[in-house]
């Protein structure tokens, strides 16, 4: 092949009328206008992409290109060599477009689109390898069609002929695909296609299929629990590359069905290969259970149209009756090929598919000893363990135990740690080891620790330990560790009693629950095949659980997921809906057995439903009111006692939503009398008298607000450790999000109300519960920072906010973040904005150290002893910066200056005019607060419709007016006149919705607020039935919700289409998706789902690069470089830069830093404790006990809240409340972090409760200060994590033993807190709202 450039015919003199007309046609239809029509997005004069598509500017007067042939996006190429392939044509065309074009087109093309992408459609002759002599070239821009027609191309000595195809143009979706997706070398693409084709076409005939367990006893053995010998039927091993899966299948006895074992390639931890009796075998060690399916035996994908491939496979819980008992437990897979003729080919396919390299277990002959071979080999055992008889015996044995113990014993089997037969054989030894323990809690703690030791020292996940000697050794070790902690706990309790400290809850280790805001909850995850057990660990409490405080073990949280513990997602071929209806629906209606108890469906919280999590309960007995007669409490009794639901009893979704109010995570405050409640009317829209302006909110008196706050503060057993810079006489919350009886919403102070008054409006009342008068707090408003997010960036960009504005904001945040690493004050601000390290009071401790003149590199000289520059403080800095940069790249979460996220309330006094709001900000920088004034931008997440962003006027109230007196700090006060602004912001209301307000000048100047009217969606009709619904109807709704929960899909599709379409969020598809989004948000209440088929498809298959998650390759062919703001923001932060942030390495050792802190603290301590005697042995023992118990629970948390059980969290991650491991599951990370926040809050609270006195007199405070000082000195003497550090490891890189540094942070907080009390520094009420933020964090994570 060779290329020559054919000189174009010159255009004749422009005086010729004909040629003038031709030039006019050319300039209007060819290069200039055609480029303006085709090119997405448009370019500015510098060749850079404009952020928003606007009216095209007039074409230049002089046309840069002068060619006769007409432009086209479809070009037919004739005269092809007979055996030329599609790849041959692509190589020839690419050389034209990528070589010749680079010399002449404007530089804007090279800057914007790089190598031109295109496609080739080629028709081959039937049953031959010959083409039909022609092909079609599909081009992104018409100009390139013109270029092909003016270039001579030779293939095999024959010149190719390029001609436009009259009357045909590319569809917009295909053109956009070519414009946005990167060009791929046809050779590379061919290699990839051939690889996928080879994997797809590969099929290995099988002789035998087995499912079993891989056990360690003490050597490896495979125990087959289910086996299928393939004699007359067909068994095969095939890859499905499109789903990253391989499938092992066999025909059923009737030869009409095919059973399938579908294994995710990512689940394969190891592969073993070898020979048994001359037959090759492969054993796959899996991390989670495979999927079991059934389909018609004659079905072949290639035989049917794509539209007929839906629901061709049925999901199964097991393969057949013989497989049923072992299906949840035995999921190691063994296959035996029909023969050994293609073993090398199979190994090659393993490599191509990305499977682990198989470990050869066959004998190496004289190259190894018998002992070495014994360690490598896999023995095969045919004896079945998971039989119905064995499992029944195990369940009967477990059922006789107390639930907390039975749960831990059953966890060993359910989670495939130990098999039931082995436990039964060890039953006597287990009972003997546990017999001398006084409580079931102590015995359960031993078994729980036993399970952890098995995983850590016995067998990795996926391998069952059946070595009885080793099991008993580990059980005895768990018992010894537990006894050591218990003996220390007893000494501490005795000493606490002498010091008149509060008695601990129960005879346990360090109490995991220390106040009524949380309780220890057992968790159960139900997958299509198995039931997995977790916990117990702390979760936030609710009204129902507080009503039955002595029965926490009777309530469990149940999570429905797939095998990977992700939400159900079905591919097109699997009839997943029918499976969920029968399987999940059956469990919801019939309940299940765990640890000898039958649990029945109770209800769900609104946020948890979004994660497919519900509450189950097992019946228990309580004494009847006023008598000692026992009364049985079951799910039905609990629901009936919540109130009357007559208003919603014919709507299953609404009935479930109203029940969920009682299960929302809240903080208890005070009770109110019935005569102190006033029922007041709604405030209506003056124009229509139909629209409610006061939806979900009402005023309360100043006295009631003050009492609520005092109750919250005085009932917190965790003493306030918040930021002490606030003045409580100035900062007092004036609004609360509450639950009371059947009502919920926002209450806020009205200074005109006297006494103790709570007002409620009809919109706040959801059901009748007149006997429940406890006010529960769900949130306290605070001035939270406003952050951008991806939907908001997309909408603002289409509202005229410039790309440079976003890039400047991003750069400022990155610069400020890196600058904060050198200054303690700025770093504390960063921690407050990110809300990390809160549970360990890192922000507070750093502030106290700053007061002692400690600092980072900008605060101190390099040789200063007050420099906090060891590995621990370096780790804090690294964690915080990692969070910022990771959020910027993968979430576009960028802080906006002069902007806040606030709760909305109503102007009860009608002082604000239509379109006006009042905002009073009070924060650390402005303790007395200030009013916003003038135009501000306001919106509410999620922003979907371009009308969801508005510009309103912020006004300052008149002096002495009710709004000026109370100010309602950190709230958006909406006008009670005109149209509801809140409802214009994505259908918001005032029952606790959060609104973003911004006076950032560039947003105010650039946002074209009137470009789109606010969306006005008619509220959907609620799905009702013609009778009173039962809990079975609610169960049906839950299963339907799991099947039809498409809110995330709608949101993602909206963003991707907005990126792909030139009209952005204003395009027709995005407007349609905005309406569907509103319907999907309301689905949990209305019961009306969004049909999957109503969701528009992408404009083209490829996704924008910003859609690539942390573990995906954004440069792969599945992604294109987005030219929208999100794409530019995403690419500006490199993943490698996040992992290797340029933070100076630490220069000081831990001992140097701790010694410096000790020296400075000693001066402060001696101001109150004049003489510091040496600690007694009793003091040291008590300190050691507390530390050991803390470390024990901290270690447990590192695996409990990790993304993967085999990759535990670090001590720093737990302290900062972050999970740094890369993952494609952002939602899962948020859920685990929220769960960890609750757990750490209770753990830290328990330690502080043990360190700090309850009585505030000076004598007690001095004694407590001395004890805490002893504790600090003791913990600084803890050894390094290892004694044999290599010589090349410097002092600055040596680390303390696990738990010592985080425990030291708690001790420092206690020291500073006591000294603050002694100096009578004011107490910060923000500590209460900070604690309540756990409620908000948990619900937000679920949403």
Would you write up a description of this structure?
The protein is α+β, with helices and mostly antiparallel strands and 1343 residues long. Helix content is 38%, strand content 19%. It is built from 42 helices and 45 strands. Strands 8, 9, 10, 11, 12, 13, 14, 15, 16, 17, 18, 19 and 20 form a 13-stranded mixed sheet that branches. Helix 17 runs antiparallel to helix 30, helix 24 crosses helix 26 and helix 25 crosses helix 41. The longest helix is centred in the middle third of the chain and has 31 residues. It is globular. The two termini are 59 Å apart. The N terminus and C terminus are likely disordered.
Most strands sheet? 13 strands, mixed
Helix content: 25-40%
What is the quaternary state of this protein?
Answer: single chain
The end-to-end distance, rounded to whole angstroms, is 59 Å
Number of strands: 45
Shape field: globular
Secondary-structure topology with pairs:
Blueprint: E1 3-5, H1 17-29, H2 31-38, E2 74-78, H3 86-100, H4 107-112, E3 119-124, E4 131-138, H5 142-149, E5 151-155, E6 158-159, E7 161-164, H6 172-180, H7 186-201, E8 203-216, E9 220-229, E10 235-240, E11 245-251, E12 257-264, E13 268-276, E14 279-286, E15 291-296, E16 313-316, E17 332-337, H8 343-353, E18 359-360, H9 370-376, E19 379-381, H10 388-399, H11 403-414, H12 420-425, H13 427-434, H14 440-458, E20 463-465, H15 468-498, E21 518-526, E22 531-540, H16 543-547, E23 555-560, H17 576-590, E24 592-594, E25 597-603, H18 606-609, E26 613-617, E27 620-623, E28 630-633, H19 635-642, H20 652-661, E29 667-671, E30 677-679, E31 697-700, H21 702-715, E32 735-740, E33 743-749, E34 758-760, E35 774-779, E36 784-787, H22 790-798, H23 803-820, H24 824-834, H25 842-851, H26 871-891, E37 895-906, E38 916-921, E39 930-931, E40 934-939, E41 950-954, H27 962-966, E42 971-974, H28 981-984, E43 994-998, H29 1001-1006, H30 1031-1044, H31 1047-1060, H32 1068-1081, H33 1083-1086, E44 1103-1104, E45 1119-1120, H34 1125-1132, H35 1135-1139, ...
Parallel strand pairs: 8-20, 9-19, 13-18, 21-23, 30-34, 31-33, 37-42, 38-41, 44-45
Antiparallel strand pairs: 1-5, 2-4, 2-7, 3-4, 5-6, 8-9, 8-10, 8-17, 10-11, 11-12, 12-15, 13-14, 14-17, 15-16, 21-22, 23-26, 24-25, 25-26, 27-28, 29-35, 32-33, 32-35, 36-37, 37-43, 38-39, 38-42, 40-41, 40-43
């Amino acid at each position: 092949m060779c290329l020559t450039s054919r000189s174009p015919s010159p255009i004749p003199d422009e005086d010729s009328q004909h040629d003038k007309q031709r030039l006019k046609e050319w300039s209007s239809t060819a290069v200039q206008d055609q480029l303006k029509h085709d090119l997405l997005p448009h370019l500015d004069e510098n060749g850079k992409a404009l952020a928003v598509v606007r009216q095209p500017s007039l074409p230049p007067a002089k046309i840069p290109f002068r060619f006769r042939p007409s432009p086209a996006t479809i070009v037919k190429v004739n005269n092809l060599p007979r055996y030329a392939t599609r790849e041959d044509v692509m190589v020839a065309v690419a050389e034209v477009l990528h070589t010749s074009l680079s010399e002449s087109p404007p530089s804007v093309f090279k800057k914007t689109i790089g190598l031109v992408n295109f496609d080739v459609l080629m028709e081959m002759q039937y049953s031959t390898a010959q083409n039909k002599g022609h092909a079609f070239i599909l081009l992104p821009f018409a100009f390139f069609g013109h270029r092909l027609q003016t270039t001579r191309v030779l293939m095999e000595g024959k010149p190719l002929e390029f001609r436009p195809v009259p009357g045909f143009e590319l569809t917009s979706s295909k053109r956009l695909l070519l414009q946005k997706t990167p060009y791929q070398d046809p050779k590379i693409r061919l290699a990839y296609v051939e690889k996928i084709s080879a994997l797809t076409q590969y099929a290995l005939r099988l002789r035998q299929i087995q499912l079993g367990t891989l056990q360690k006893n003490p050597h490896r053995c495979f125990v087959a629990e289910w086996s299928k010998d393939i004699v007359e039927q067909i068994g095969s091993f095939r890859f499905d590359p499109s789903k990253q899966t391989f499938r092992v299948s066999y025909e059923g006895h009737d030869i009409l069905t095919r059973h399938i074992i579908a294994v995710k390639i990512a689940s394969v931890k190891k592969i073993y290969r070898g020979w048994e009796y001359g037959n090759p075998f492969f054993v796959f060690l899996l991390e989670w259970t495979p999927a079991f399916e059934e389909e018609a035996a004659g079905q072949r994908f290639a035989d049917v149209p794509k539209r007929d491939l839906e629901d061709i496979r049925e999901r199964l819980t097991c393969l057949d009756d013989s497989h049923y008992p072992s299906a949840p437990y035995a999921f190691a897979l063994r296959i035996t090929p029909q023969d050994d003729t293609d073993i090398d080919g199979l190994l090659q396919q393993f490599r191509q598919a990305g499977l682990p390299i198989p470990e050869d277990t066959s004998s190496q002959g004289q190259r190894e000893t018998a002992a070495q071979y014994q360690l490598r080999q896999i023995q095969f055992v045919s004896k079945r363990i998971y039989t119905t008889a064995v499992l029944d015996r195990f369940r009967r044995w477990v059922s006789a135990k107390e639930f907390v113990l039975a749960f831990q014993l059953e966890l060993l089997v359910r989670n495939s740690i130990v098999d039931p037969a082995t436990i039964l054989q060890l039953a006597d030894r287990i009972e003997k080891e546990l017999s001398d323990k006084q409580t079931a809690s102590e015995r359960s703690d031993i078994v729980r620790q036993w399970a952890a030791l098995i995983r850590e020292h016995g067998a990795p996940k996926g391998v069952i330990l059946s070595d009885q000697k080793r099991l008993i050794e580990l059980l005895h070790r768990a018992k010894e560790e537990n006894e050591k902690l218990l003996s220390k706990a007893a000494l501490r309790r005795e000493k606490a009693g002498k010091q008149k400290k509060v008695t601990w809850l129960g005879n346990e280790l360090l109490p995991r629950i220390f106040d009524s805001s949380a309780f220890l909850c057992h968790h159960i995850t139900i997958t299509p095949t198995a039931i997995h057990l977790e916990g117990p660990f702390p979760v936030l409490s609710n009204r129902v659980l507080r009503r039955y405080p002595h029965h926490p073990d009777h309530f469990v949280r149940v999570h429905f997921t797939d095998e990977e513990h992700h939400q159900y997602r079905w591919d097109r071929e699997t009839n997943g809906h029918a499976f969920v209806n029968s399987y999940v629906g059956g469990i919801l209606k019939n309940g299940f057995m765990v640890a000898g108890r039958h649990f029945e469906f109770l209800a769900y919280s609104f946020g948890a439903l979004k994660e497919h999590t519900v509450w189950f309960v097992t019946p228990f007995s309580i004494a009847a009111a006023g008598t000692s007669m026992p009364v049985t409490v079951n799910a039905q009794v609990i629901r009936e006692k919540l109130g009357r639901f007559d208003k919603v009893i014919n709507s299953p979704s609404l009935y479930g939503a109203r029940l969920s109010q009682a299960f929302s995570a809240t903080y208890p405050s005070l009770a109110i009398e019935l005569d102190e409640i006033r029922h007041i009317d709604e405030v209506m829209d003056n124009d229509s008298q139909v629209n409610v302006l006061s939806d979900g909110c009402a005023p309360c008196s100043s006295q009631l607000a003050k009492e609520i706050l005092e109750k919250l503060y005085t009932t917190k057993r965790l003493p306030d450790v918040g930021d002490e810079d606030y003045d409580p006489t100035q900062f007092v919350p004036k609004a609360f999000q509450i639950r009371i009886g059947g009502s919920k919403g926002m209450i806020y102070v009205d200074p005109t109300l006297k006494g103790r008054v709570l007002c409620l409006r009809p919109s706040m009342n959801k059901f009748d519960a007149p006997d429940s008068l406890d006010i529960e707090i769900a949130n306290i408003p605070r001035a939270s920072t406003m952050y951008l997010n991806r939907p908001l960036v997309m909408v603002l960009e289409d509202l005229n906010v410039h790309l440079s504005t976003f890039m400047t904001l991003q750069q400022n945040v990155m610069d400020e973040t890196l600058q904060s690493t050198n200054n303690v004050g700025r770093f504390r601000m960063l921690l407050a904005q990110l809300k990390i390290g809160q549970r360990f009071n890192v922000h507070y401790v750093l502030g106290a150290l700053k007061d002692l003149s400690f600092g980072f590199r900008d605060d101190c000289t390099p040789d200063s002893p007050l420099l906090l520059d060891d590995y621990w403080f370096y780790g804090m800095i690294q964690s915080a910066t990692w969070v910022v940069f990771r959020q910027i790249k993968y979430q576009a979460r960028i802080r906006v200056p002069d902007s806040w996220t606030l709760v909305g309330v109503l102007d009860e006094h009608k002082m604000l005019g239509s379109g006006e709001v009042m905002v009073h900000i009070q924060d650390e920088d402005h303790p007395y607060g200030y009013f916003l004034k003038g135009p501000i931008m306001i919106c509410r997440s999620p922003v979907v419709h371009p009308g969801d962003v508005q510009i309103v006027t912020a006004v300052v109230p008149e002096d002495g007016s009710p709004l000026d007196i109370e100010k309602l700090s950190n709230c958006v006060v909406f006008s009670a006149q005109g149209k509801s602004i809140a409802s214009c912001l994505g259908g918001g209301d005032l029952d606790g919705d959060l609104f973003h307000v911004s006076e950032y000048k560039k947003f105010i100047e650039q946002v074209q607020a009137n470009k789109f009217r606010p969306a006005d969606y008619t509220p959907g009709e609620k799905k009702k039935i013609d009778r009173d619904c039962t809990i079975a109807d609610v169960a049906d709704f839950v299963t339907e919700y799991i099947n039809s929960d498409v809110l995330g899909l709608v949101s993602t599709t909206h963003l991707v289409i907005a990126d792909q379409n030139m009209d952005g969020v204003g395009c027709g598809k995005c407007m349609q998706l905005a309406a569907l989004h509103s319907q999907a948000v309301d689905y949990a209440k209305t019961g009306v789902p969004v049909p999957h088929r109503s969701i528009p498809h992408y404009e083209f298959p490829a996704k924008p690069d910003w859609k690539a998650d942390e573990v995906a390759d954004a440069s792969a062919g599945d992604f294109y470089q987005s030219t929208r703001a999100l794409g530019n923001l995403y690419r500006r932060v490199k993943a490698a830069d996040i992992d290797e942030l340029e933070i100076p390495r630490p220069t000081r050792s831990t001992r140097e830093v701790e010694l410096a802190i000790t020296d400075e603290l000693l001066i402060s301590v001696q101001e109150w404790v004049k003489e510091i005697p040496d600690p007694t042995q009793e003091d040291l023992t008590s300190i050691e006990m507390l530390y050991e118990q803390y470390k024990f629970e901290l270690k447990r948390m590192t695996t409990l809240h990790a993304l993967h059980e085999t990759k535990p969290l670090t001590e720093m991650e737990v302290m900062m409340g972050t999970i740094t491991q890369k993952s494609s599951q952002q939602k899962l990370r948020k859920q685990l972090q929220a769960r960890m926040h609750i757990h750490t809050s209770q753990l830290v609270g328990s330690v502080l409760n043990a360190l700090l006195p309850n009585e505030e007199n000076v004598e007690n405070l001095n004694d407590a200060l001395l004890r805490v000082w002893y504790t600090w000195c003791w913990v600084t003497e803890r050894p390094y994590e290892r004694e044999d550090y290599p010589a090349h490891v410097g002092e600055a890189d040596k680390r303390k033993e696990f738990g010592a540094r985080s425990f030291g942070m708690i001790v420092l907080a206690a020291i500073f807190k006591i000294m603050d009390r002694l100096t009578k520094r004011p107490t910060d009420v923000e500590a209460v709202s900070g604690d309540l933020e756990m409620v908000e964090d948990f619900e937000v994570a679920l949403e």
